[in-house]
Design goal:
By secondary structure, the chain is α+β, with helices and mostly antiparallel strands. It has a single domain, classed as Gcn5-related N-acetyltransferase (GNAT) (Aminopeptidase), CATH 3.40.630.30. Strands 1-2-3-4-5-7-6 form a 7-stranded mixed β-sheet, with helices on both faces. Strands 8-9 form a two-stranded antiparallel sheet. The chain starts with a strand and ends with a strand.
């Protein structure tokens, strides 16, 4: 039984998520950017909590049959405890309920731990975006995963 719970992002999470963004990313989302997603009908952000304490989060955008993961982050002291996988599984569920047939993301090729996690849940490399990241400049690997077709219970 996982001791972490997933809840939809709300206003109360914003300051902690902005702090997490600054820890994890060279170009972090601001509190205002995160707050704007609360009213975005295509955005679905899930927060992992441990007894009400924010430990990580994931943001996805669903447009028609595709879903893109925009953010996934876990506080350093909570890493390697299954939270990333829990967040991804939550994203898969949200995407499937939203009618998405696939889910994609970009990741720095140097982020070996993240790539290992993504591959462990079925993502495969499908492309490369040259100079996608800044500070430092680095390509972005595009990873994608087909989702379960709810009608027949099989991958498409």
């Amino acid at each position: 039984m996982n001791k972490y719970t997933l809840v939809p992002m709300s206003e109360r999470h914003i300051p902690q998520l902005a702090r997490l963004e600054k820890i994890c990313f060279s170009q972090p989302w601001s509190e205002q950017s995160l707050r704007e997603e609360l009213d975005n009908r295509t955005a679905h952000f899930l927060v992992a909590e441990d007894g009400g304490i924010v430990v990580g989060y994931i943001g996805v955008f669903i447009v028609y049959e595709s879903c893109d993961i925009s953010n996934i982050a876990v506080f350093p002291e909570y890493r390697r405890q299954g939270i990333g996988k829990l967040l991804l599984e939550g994203a898969f569920e949200v995407a499937e309920k939203g009618g998405a047939e696939s889910i994609s993301l970009e990741v720095r090729p140097s982020n070996c731990g993240a790539i290992e996690l993504y591959r462990s849940v079925g993502f495969e490399e499908v492309g490369l975006r040259k100079n996608f990241y800044r500070n430092p400049t680095e390509d972005g690997l595009i990873l994608s995963k087909k989702l379960i077709n709810k009608e027949n219970g099989e991958e498409e």
